[in-house]
Fold:
Amino acid sequence: MNSSLIREIADAGLTGRGGGGFPTAEKLRVARASRARLIINACDGEYGSVKDQWVLEHHLAEIEVALAALHTELGNKEFPLLAVHRGRTSHLARAFGRADEVHRTASPRYNFLRPEVMAVPARYVSSESSALAAFAAGADARPVHRSLPLAEAGTTTTPARGSVRVPPTLVLNAETVWRIAQIMAHGASWFRGSGSAEAPGPRLVTVWGDVPRTRVMEAAAGDYIADILHSANAGPGAVSVDGLSGSWLPAAEDRVWQERPPTLGDRGVGVLRVLRNDECPLDRVGDLLRIGVNESAGQCGPCMFGLPALLNDWTELRAGRYQRETLIRHVLTVAGRGACGMPDGVSRMVASAVDVFQADLDAHTRGSCVRQVHPNQRVAS
Amino acid sequence: MKRAAVDQQAVPPGYVVVELDRTLCRGFGACAGFATKDVRLDEWGYPVILQSSEIIVNKATAKAVINHCPVAAWKKKRR
Structure:
């Protein structure tokens, strides 16, 4: 089983479900060669995501079966860690209780491995893979510069943070590990029965905002987002895809939904937040930017200075003083220039908002708002 | 998982790969004075470079960039 595990995962075409969408088998091969330590990321770090929590509550037993196999495969003696955010751990007792029940009643018996819980500071960047690996090694939970892939060579935290040696570490999202368990149980061809060629298999999506209740739904790359929203009984407002690291879709009335219906991508964490139709999307973009500014680890210059600059641009724009060139220049300045992908994601999210909400931006320039009475107007009247 | 940004085969003889640790960089800007073709500075004084966090420069430039950074944010890439 074990020597063929990675081959089976490669045949299945499994990609990481934590956002990056990197081929899992490729990561595992590197990690096995370096006997990397395994961390399961169940932090639900992306804004609004609750799917990791859902996976633990419903499928921890399967995850623990996959862990036993992965532990043997990787040959690292340390216990695998299960990373969750501090203060968001109330579901764990329930999850472990259910898993115990499943293991106890299982027939035939099988091997499983219980991970050790690692509660990390509840910050956006602390659930980034190098931050988790650094935290596990006893350093601060901040992203670390890597010369080579983390699973291959580990890294060393900066001298200012005590030069802690971070061993080779493989970080897999909780849903990814659950998918490994499913591939072990049902095989690669079953897995390839859904999804796209680049990202086969089922994937989870959190739908929240203007819906009767927040839901975690099973979908697949290539699925029409309109269908997912329809099943969730979502309202007709604009949609934020994947929070700070994602993009925007216009409200249901926009022609794009008929002409080029948006589909679920090959990558991404899988979060759909539906805005109320009377909510100004420009405000929500500003909220996400503000979170980005506040959640920055404050390490890399482009993030430290670039994100506040973008927030300032956005605030100006929101007030009707739209300086497209400055905003775009800052988007381009920030992208691709951090130790982690956070500034990248945030700047792309803003760029997408500029594309999608052109009508809203024009209205704000005229001192009104498509969605509601603009505050400036309210003052005037 | 990040792939290696620079294909090592593409490094010409006499040249080396130098990488920037952005968590260390404080925007002193000395690098831009030495690697004028490969590094420019953004409006806050932080290096803008072509390939994510690495530049390919000749040995003399590499030495200058590495030795003159006050916070030792530039390092020769191990491989």
Remarks:
- Residues 155 and 166 of chain A are 5 Å apart (CA to CA).
- Chain A is about 45% helix and 15% strand.
- The first strand of chain A starts at residue 37 and ends at 41.
- Chain A touches chain B at residues 20, 22, 26-27, 30, 142-151, 158-160, 299-302, 305-306, 333, 336-339 (CB under 8 Å).
